[in-house]
Amino acid sequence: MPEGDTVWRTARRLHQALADRPLTGCDLRVPRLATVDLAGRRVMDVTARGKHLLTRIEGGLTLHSHLRMDGAWRVYDPGERWRGGPLHQVRAVLSTADHTAVGYRLPVLDLLRTADEDRVVGHLGPDLLGPDWDPQEALRRLLADPARPVGEALLDQRNLAGIGNVYKSELCFLMRVSPWLPAGQVPSPQRLVALAKRLLEANKARPARITTAESRADRRLWVYGRAGKPCLRCGTPVRTDGLDPSGQERLTYWCPACQPDPASPVGPTD
């Protein structure tokens, strides 16, 4: 699933391509929006809110999309071949005189009044890359249930918005805590919140995410995607578990030596 930095970059790319320009074409390929035509309206703004994308359009309308696991927006020049996937996966096409934005495999696509945006994003916690970032409020929410595993608490967008499975694993490693450690037992939890903000800020404009300060493709991340490989810090094989702390089918990566905890599952190493 794309994380907050990826969604931020997507919003910036869409904003640069569409904002302050009238739409010359609009094709929303979901049944409830099939008859909607926004052509002629000006795109006012495209912004990210956590993992949500809000395209604000003249007339007080917002096109809301969420990428979930494998959704994507691509921007093309006039006449450029679309390369984001087969045409049957296209869910939205927004065109201006200069660019065409194509949304692929979008599991969430809604049109609502801009005044009603809170209906779809009002539940989110402080946005790590947004103007509403409030580290104290994020910390309060993160620790509201001190018995909750910290990995699960980090993934909950109601606590702080923008963290996905990659940053969950990397943050727990950098803090030297197991993803299954109760949030209330994390040493210096305010440092965890500050580190989350720093990592996403550092990576929001990068094409390749880096948490190790190394640019080599196989050493950019400490543990995520490194199952069975030596820990970059201590050499112990990195473990992975097929379920995230809330039981969903996402992988959690950790080093059992750097992040010891008796509650950690004994997962496979490959």
From TrEMBL:
Chain ranges of the FPG-type domain: 222-260
Annotated ranges, domain Formamidopyrimidine-DNA glycosylase catalytic: 2-103
InterPro entries: DNA_glyclase_Znf_dom_DNA_BS, FPG_cat, FPG_N, H2TH_FPG, Nei2_N, Ribosomal_uS13-like_H2TH, Znf_DNA_glyclase/AP_lyase, Znf_FPG/IleRS
The UniProt record lists the keyword Cytoplasm: no
Keywords associated with the record: DNA damage, DNA repair, DNA-binding, Endonuclease, Glycosidase, Hydrolase, Lyase, Metal-binding, Multifunctional enzyme, Nuclease, Zinc, Zinc-finger
GO biological process: base-excision repair
Chemical reaction(s) catalysed: 2'-deoxyribonucleotide-(2'-deoxyribose 5'-phosphate)-2'-deoxyribonucleotide-DNA = a 3'-end 2'-deoxyribonucleotide-(2,3-dehydro-2,3-deoxyribose 5'-phosphate)-DNA + a 5'-end 5'-phospho-2'-deoxyribonucleoside-DNA + H(+)
Family per record: Belongs to the FPG family.
Name assigned to this protein: DNA-(apurinic or apyrimidinic site) lyase
Organism, scientific name: Streptomyces sparsogenes DSM 40356
